């Protein structure tokens, strides 16, 4: 795992914002842990494993899945693997179905995960492509955009953490997704950074000015 800084211009924009500015000063620049060497397919497998799980448990299961696949997280390795062994690694039935469907669609060419091609697509086109896979919804696709492709203007308004962090930063009740979808329009084209600060706001014990 390595740390990298993202969107310095976005951080500067948020630092000047009436609400986000104090949080930027307290939390510091946007950084993210990047899993070194993971291609888009392996990254998505990891994202499926991590859905709705705490980090330690997800890391353990992911490690076991890698062992079952012989250390090669590829569509071909998933296709050749014993489903019972993958279930035994700790995958739920739904996560196994998602990973198998992803592998099948990549092998058939229905879902292309070529890095250069993904980079050339706009955000919504990437979401549309990834959500063809059973079990990969808009949220997972948005996390892929933010943390794998580094897209700067993704706004996951349905994310509970973003909604809760927004409420803490703004001193208001947690907004419904539909309301929050429009509330950050003024922060474009840096809404990925805004989402990151919303998540971090939930980790801060003492908010700015407390």
UniProtKB/TrEMBL annotation:
<dbReference type="InterPro" id="IPR051912">
    <property type="entry name" value="Alkylbase_DNA_Glycosylase/TA"/>
</dbReference>
<feature type="domain" description="HhH-GPD">
    <location>
        <begin position="49"/>
        <end position="203"/>
    </location>
</feature>
<protein>
    <recommendedName>
        <fullName>DNA-3-methyladenine glycosylase II</fullName>
        <ecNumber>3.2.2.21</ecNumber>
    </recommendedName>
</protein>
<keyword id="KW-0227">DNA damage</keyword>
<dbReference type="InterPro" id="IPR011257">
    <property type="entry name" value="DNA_glycosylase"/>
</dbReference>
<dbReference type="InterPro" id="IPR003265">
    <property type="entry name" value="HhH-GPD_domain"/>
</dbReference>
<dbReference type="Pfam" id="PF00730">
    <property type="entry name" value="HhH-GPD"/>
</dbReference>
<keyword id="KW-0234">DNA repair</keyword>
């Amino acid at each position: 795992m390595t740390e990298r800084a993202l969107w310095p211009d976005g951080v500067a924009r948020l630092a000047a914002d009436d609400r986000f500015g104090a949080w930027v000063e307290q939390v510091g620049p946007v950084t993210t842990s990047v899993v070194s060497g993971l291609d888009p397919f392996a990254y998505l497998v990891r994202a499926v494993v991590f859905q709705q799980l705490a980090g330690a448990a997800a890391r353990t299961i992911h490690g076991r899945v890698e062992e079952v696949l012989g250390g090669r997280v590829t569509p071909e390795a998933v296709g050749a693997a014993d489903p019972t062994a993958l279930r035994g690694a700790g995958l739920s039935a739904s996560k196994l179905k998602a990973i198998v469907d992803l592998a099948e669609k990549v092998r058939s060419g229905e879902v292309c995960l070529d890095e250069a091609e993904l980079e050339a697509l706009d955000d919504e086109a990437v979401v549309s492509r990834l959500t063809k896979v059973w079990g990969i919804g808009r949220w997972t696709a948005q996390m892929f955009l933010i943390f794998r492709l580094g897209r700067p203007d993704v706004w996951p308004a349905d994310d509970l953490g973003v909604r809760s962090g927004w409420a803490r930063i703004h001193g208001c009740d947690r907004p419904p997704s539909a309301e929050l979808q429009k509330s950050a329009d003024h922060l474009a084209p840096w809404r990925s950074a805004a989402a990151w600060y919303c998540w971090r706001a939930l980790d801060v014990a003492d908010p700015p000015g407390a």
